[in-house]
Amino acid sequence: MLLYYALGGGLGHLVRARAFLHTLGLEAEAMLFTSSRFADDHRVTGGLPVVRVPPSLDGDRAGLRVLLEVTLAATRATRVVVDAFPAGLLGELAGWAPPPGLALWHVARLLRWDRYPSDASPLLPRYDVTFVVEPLHAEHRRALESASASIRPLDLVDPPFPPPEPIEGPHVLVVHSGPDEETLDLVACARELAAAGGRDTRVVLASPSRPEALPESVAWRNAFPATGLFPAAERIVAAAGFNAVRQTEPFRAKRFLVPYPRRFDDPFARAARVRCQA
User: Fold this and answer.
1) What does pTM read for this prediction?
2) Alpha helices in the chain (DSSP H)
3) Which pLDDT score is estimated for 71?
């Protein structure tokens, strides 16, 4: 049994978990350990077993570690994969010594390393392998090299999904899972892009939920994943999260990225990197 430790309330950790497990062929033995609000959506989890972190443990470092250790004992997991936050979201894994016989892996993506060690912890557990899925800040990379027996690059591949219902006619596609304020801001950007085209181009939002203030002229699709909608869109408007950038890379000539501030993720550095590579 492999336990994928993916704390964070959004969609991104679970999307990355599915891609990681698919890329390495580990889905059959995997279980998700998550606090994501999307953990009950079988489209997102792919039907994998899920250990839900209860809201009562929000902000509780000691409680999270206890739940992890109880889960490991109950499932007899032989591997734990820690997503994104090497010392845990709260620092709950700082200095953690796994039980004998348990392999500890890490999936590393870009973090604001000027903030993460002070807000979570600079004391990382010892990883057998760290898989790096995008370029990291130099200080972050050095910390992981010191805490890992092996560092490996990994290009993620999403699992196959049924094709979505196509969208007819010219359109600008907005892809975001929230919060609503950001989604509506992206919609406003998309409407400006559509108007600048000088044609009757409509805006379509692909999101798990429809914002209450969504303009009536904007169509909404509860499509997951939205990747099947990318080829037909004239433009793709998205935030600069890890998965959005990775999944729109084949369509980079028509994507428009708008970074938003995050506590630990660094969308602004990611978006700047994309601009430099254009």
Assistant:
1) 0.96
2) 12-23, 42-45, 61-75, 116-119, 138-147, 180-196, 242-248, 267-277
3) 97
